[in-house]
Amino acid sequence: MIVITQEQAAALAALTTRRLRQLAHEADAPPRDETGYPARAFGDWLRQRALSGVSITDDGDVYVYEVERARLTHEQADKTALENAALRADLVRMQVVEQYWAALGAILRSKLISIPAQIAALIPDPQQRAKLSTQVEKLIFEAMAEIQKDAVPSQIREQAERAAKGVDP
User: Fold this and answer.
1) In sequence order, which ranges of the chain are alpha helices (DSSP H)?
2) What are phi and psi of 36, to 5 degrees?
3) Mind listing the pLDDT tens digit of every residue in the chain (169 residues)?
4) What SS3 class is residue 4?
5) How does DSSP assign 58-95, residue by residue?
6) What is the value of pTM for the model shown?
7) 33 by DSSP, 3-state: which?
C-alpha cells in the first residue's frame, strides 16, 4: 500500500495543509491512518468530493452545482440591476415608449388635419378658401406621410424580436 504525506495530499487536493487538517474534523473527512494518507483511498475520496458538486441529467448533460449557482446569482443580480434602473426611470420598457408615441402621433394627426378647415374659415372668398384648403391639406398629408415611422429604431426592434425568440443579441 502506497502512503502519501500531508503535504503531498494537500498538493493533490489543491488545498493548504491547514485546510486539509481542518477537513479531518468534518463529516466527510479524508482517509488517514497513523502513517499518512493511503493513496488509493485518498484518490477515491478526492474523486467523490469532486463529483459531489456535479449532476448528470437523464439526457447526459453535466451540471456543476457551483457553476450553476454562480450563473443563477449573476442572473439575479442582472435582474435586480434592471429593476433598479426601471425604478430610477433610467430604463423604460419599449411597450411604454410605443404606446406614448402612438398616442402622441394620434393627437398630432388630429391637430394637423384640423388646420386646413381653420385656415379656410379665415378666408372670406369661397373660391380661394376651397383652393387654399385643398393645398394646405395636401401639404399636411405629405408631411404626415414623410414623418410617419415606427417610434422604435429598427436595430432596437430587431434586437427585441431576437430576444423574444430566445436568440442572444
Assistant:
1) 6-13, 17-23, 39-51, 65-87, 94-120, 126-147, 154-164
2) 150, -150
3) 899 999 999 999 999 999 999 998 988 899 999 899 999 999 999 988 877 767 777 777 777 778 888 999 999 999 999 999 989 989 888 888 888 888 888 898 899 999 998 988 899 998 998 899 899 999 998 888 877 766 677 788 888 888 888 765 5
4) strand
5) TTS-EEEHHHHHHHHHHHHHHHHHHHHHHHTTSS--HH
6) 0.45
7) strand
